[in-house]
Amino acid sequence: MNRRPSWLAAVGWNLALVVACAVTLYPVLWVIKMALTPSQAFDLSPSPIPNTFSLSNFHDLVMATDMAGRWLFGHWLFNSVVVAGATTLLSLALATTAAYAFSRFVFPGRRIGMTLFLVTQMFPGVVMAIPLYLLLDAMNLLDSMVGLTLVYSTTAIPFCVWMMKGYFDTIPKDLEEAAVMDGAGRWTMFFRIILPLARPAIVVTALFSFMTAWNEFILAATFLSDETAFTLPVALQRYVGDYSTEWGHFAAGAIIVSTPVMALFFALQRHLIGGLTAGGVKG
Amino acid sequence: MRRWMLMALVFAALLAVPPGVRGDAPAPATLRLWHSYRGAERDAVERVVAEFARIHPEWPVELLAVPYEAFANKLTSAIPRGNGPDVFIAAHERLGDWVESGLIAGLPEGDPWSGFFPATVEAVTWKGRQFGYPLAFKSLALFVRDDVLGGPVPGDTDSLQAACRRMAAGRPGNFCIAWEAGSFYHHAPWVFGFGGGILDKDGKPRLDRPENAASVAFVTGLTKDGHMPQEPTSALITQLFNEGRVAMAVNGPWFLGELAPGVKYSVHPLPRVSSTGLPATPFLTVDAAMVSSKSTVPEAAGALARFLAVEGAAPRLVDARQVVALASAWDLTDVAVDPIVVQFREAAAAAIPMPNVPVMRAVWEPASQALRAALRGAAEPEAAMESAMQRIEIATRPRPAAANPLFALAGLAILGIAALVWAARRFRRDDTWSRMRASSHAYAFLAPAAVATGVLVFVPFAVGTGVAFFSHHQGEFTYVGLANFINILGSTDYAVTEPLSFWFTLGVTVMWTVVNVFMHVSIGVALALVLRRPWMKLRGVYRVLLIVPWAVPSYITALIWKGMFHKQFGAVNGLLVWLGLEPVSWFSHFWTSFAANVATNTWLGFPFMMVVTLGALQSIPGELEEAAEMDGATAVQRFFSITLPLLKPALLPAIVLGGVWTFNMFNIIFLVSGGEPGGSTEILISEAYRWAFSRQEQYGYAAAYATLIFLFLLAWSLAAGRLQRRTA
C-alpha cells in the first residue's frame, strides 16, 4: 500500500483525477466567464474560457446606491456578515449545550428528543414560509436581523446537535471524572474540557450554520421590506426577472457570495474532514 | 472561558439592540411602493417618485425593489397583515385573483380612462371596475436582422416560409426564425392567428379545437424543416440572434437588454397567417400601479398610483423606453422617442390583453407540456391538446365539499385526553417524575435549543400541516377533513401508473434518491481512496478543487448543467458527436431526462461523501490492509472485506441524512428537467410546489403532499435507524 506504484500507474491516477477536476470545474468556470462578460445574456458556447475581461458586472453590483445615495452593497454585505455571524454564534451556543446534554446525561425524553431533532430535517420547506411569516409578525420580528437570525439558527441547530453529539460521544469520560474529583461543576467541565476537545466538530458546525444563513434568500426576501436591510443573496436574486435574467450581474453576484464560503472551506478543510466524520461515526 | 463569555455577550448585545440595527420603521404617513423593476426602468420610476415627493412633501414615499421570485408570496402574506405596500407595480395577469382575495382596492369611478389605450384599460378591469392604473405594456414582436434575412420582412406565413426555404440553401447550423416554441405564452400568437382560442365564451379553458392543433402543426413543421432550432430556449435564441445565425426572433422588449452591442435589428408586427388571413396576435401584458386595500392612506396611495401612470408616463417613455399606456404621452413633439419603442407600440396594436381570470394560470403548465410533446414528435397536435385539457380540468376541478370540523375536534380532544391519561399513568407507575427532577441540569442544557426549535420549527410545521385538512380558494380556507389525502392516495385524478399520480411520482422519487445516494457514495468513496495514497503528491490541490461544487450556490450551476444537456448546442452532445455518437435529445425521454437530473445532482453531492470518507479513512489503521496484502488478498478483496466494513459506521448516518436531503432536492428537478417529458420526472416536493403555486394556489392539497413526504421520510429513517442499530 505504501510502496510507490509504477510510474505508469501514478500517471494514470493523476490523469483520472485531472479529468474529475475538469468535470468539477467546468460549470464553475462558466460562471466566471459570464461574470467577466459585460453582456447580460446566458452564455451557451462550449468554451468556458472568457474571451473578454471586464469588471463592469462587479462594478454595477458593488457600486449600487439607492435614491438617497446610500451605498447599498455596503449595507448588504454588513447585513449578511452580521446575520450569518450571529446565526453561527447562536447555533453553536444552543447546539453545543443540547448535544452535551444528549451525550453525557441519561434523562427521560432523551431518545425522543434526539429523534425529534432528526425529524426536523424532513420538513419540506414549501409549507413553512407562510406560517413562519405569521409567527414572526406576531413576535414583531419581521424586517429585523434578529428575526432572521432566529429562523436561520433553528434551521441549522438540528443538524449541528446531531454532529456535535456524535463527536462528544467519542471524547472519553475519564477526563470529566477526574475533573469532578477536583470539584469542577458541570458548566466548568463543559467549557473547560469538552469544548476545547471538540474543536473540529465546532468548526464543522460553525461552517454549516454560516452557510445556511449566508446562502438563503427566499425567507429573507419574504421577511425583509427595507432595501438597506437586505442580505446579499436577496439583492442578487433581483437580477432574476419575470421574463429575463441579467446573467452577467447574477454570475458576478454568485461569485461574490460564494468566495467567502470557499475561502472558509479551504482554510478549514483539515478540521472539516476530521469533524464531519467523527460526528458521523457514532451519530 | 473568557472567550466564551465574550461571545455570549456579543450575542446578547445583538439581540438587545434591534432598533438600531433594524431598518427605521416608516412613519405612519409614509407611502410604501413595491416594484420589481431593474436598470433604466427602475431609475425612471425612482425619478418619478422623487418628483411626486417634491410636489407632495406631506407624503414621503419609500420604494422597495422586491426580487421577482418572492413578489407574489410577499404580497399575499404582507398585505392582509397590514405590512404590505400602499401601492405596488405588477403585471396585470393575477389581477382577478388579487381582487377576489381582497388585496387590491377598486379605483374611484369616473376617472378619465379615455387617455389610456383601451386594451390596457381592459386589462385592469375586473367585473366592470378598474383596479389599477396601466403604466406600460409588453407584447411579443418580430425582431429581424435585416443583414441576415437579406430580403423583405415577411408579412404573412407563406412569405415567411418562402423566405426560410430561400435561406435554408446551403447554410447548416443557421436558422430562419426562432422563438421559445415550448412555452405557451410564446405560442399563443399562432393560436389566435389560426383562428383558435384558449378560453371559451364562459371563460372556461378550451384548447381542444382544430384551429389550435393547426397552429401546433405549423410550428412542428418549421422545426421539422430545420427552419427553427430544436429546444429553443431563451438563452439559445439570444445567442443565435447575436451571432447572426438566425434571421428572425419572436420575443418581447426585454430581449433588447440581451442583444450584443453593434447588432443591427428592426422590430415588426408578427406576420399574418396566410390560411386564415388573421394576424398572429400576441398577448398584451400590462404593468399596472395597484393600490392595496389595506393602505392606511388610500387617498395618497391613489394619488401616487395615478401620478406614476400620468405624470410619470413621459419620463418612463423617454428614459426607460417603456411602451407606456398613456396615449397622450406619445404626442410629445419636443422629445425624441426611440424609434424602436414606436415599433413596439405598432407591433402591439393587434395584441389582446392576457385574460386576468384566475383560471388562466392553470393553463400555462399543461399547455406548454403539450406543446413540447408535439414538438418532439411524441404526440400528434390534437392528442397533445386533448391531454392538456385533461390536466387543466384536473387542476381546476371543484374543491372538495366542506366537512364538519366537529368530528376532527372531537377526535383531537379524545387523542389529547388519551395522551394525558397515558402520561399520568406512566408518571404514577414508574419513577419517571423523580428521574426527571433529578435530571434538571440536563434539561437546563437542552432547554434553549429545544425551546427555539420548538417555537420556530415545530409550530410552523404544525400550522403548515394543519393546512392539509383545508382547501384554499382566493384567500379563504375551508375545512375539508381528509378529502385531500383521500384524493392523493386514492389516485382519483390520474391512474396509478400515469405520470403526475402520487404513486408514480413516489416511485420516481424513491428511485431518484437511491440512484443519487449510490452515485454520491461510490464516487465520493472512490475519490477518497485515490486521494489518500501517500504517493499522491498533488492531493491537497485535488481535494480543494473537488470540494468546489459544495460551496457554489446550486441555483446557477443547475442552470448551467441544463444548458450542457441541450440537444443541438449542449456540451454533452458536442462530446458525443466528437466521439462519433448520435446526439441525444435529453429531455424527450424519461430515462435520459432522469439521467440528466442525476448527473447534475451527482456533481453537486459527491464532495460531501468524499469529505466524510476521507475523514473516516484517517481513523482506519493502514496496517490492517498491509497485513491483508501480505496474505495475498487482491485490491478488490481488501476493499470489500476490510475498508468498506470499517467505513460503514461513518457512512451510514451520512447516507441517512443525504437520503433525506436528496428526497427533497427541489432545485435540481425544477431547474434541470422541469419535470420533462410531460411531468414524468417530477419528484414529490416539486409536485407539491406546483400544486401550491402554478395550479390555482391549492395550498391545502400541496400541504397534504408535504405531510405525506414527511410521513414517508419518517418511516424510512426509523427503519434505517433500526437497521443501523442491528448492524452496529
- Total number of distinct structural domains of chain B: 4
Provide the structure class of chain B. Answer: alpha/beta
Which CATH architecture of the largest domain in chain B would you pick? Answer: 3-Layer(aba) Sandwich
Would you identify the CATH H-level superfamily of the largest domain in chain A? MetI-like
CATH fold-type name of the largest domain in chain A:
MetI-like fold
Structure, explained:
The complex is a heterodimer of chains A (283) and B (728). By secondary structure, chain A is mainly α. Chain A has two domains: 1-54, no CATH class; 65-281, MetI-like (MetI-like fold, Orthogonal Bundle), CATH 1.10.3720.10. Chain A is built from twelve helices and no strands. In chain A, helix 1 packs across helix 12 (247-281), helix 2 crosses helix 12 and helix 6 (145-170) runs parallel beside helix 12. The longest helix of chain A has 35 residues, at 247-281. The mean pLDDT of chain A is 84. With 728 residues, chain B is an alpha/beta fold. The two termini of chain B are 37 Å apart. In chain B, helix 21 (502-531) crosses helix 26 and helix 24 (554-564) crosses helix 26 (590-618). The radius of gyration of chain B is 30 Å and the shape is globular. In chain B, strand 1, helix 3 and strand 2 (61-65) form a beta-alpha-beta unit. Mean pLDDT of chain B is 86; it is low at 1-27. The longest helix of chain B is centred in the last third of the chain and has 30 residues, at 502-531. Chain B folds into four domains: 24-137 and 285-353, D-Maltodextrin-Binding Protein, domain 2; 141-281 and 363-395, Periplasmic binding protein-like II (D-Maltodextrin-Binding Protein, domain 2); 405-481, no CATH class; 511-684, MetI-like (MetI-like fold, Orthogonal Bundle), CATH 1.10.3720. In chain B, strands 1, 2, 3, 6, 11 and 12 form a six-stranded mixed sheet that branches. Chain B has a four-stranded mixed sheet with strand order 8-9-7-10. In chain B, strands 4-5 form a two-stranded antiparallel ribbon. At the A-B interface, helix 1, helix 3, helix 4, helix 5 and helix 6 of A face helix 1, helix 3, strand 2, helix 4 and helix 11 of B.
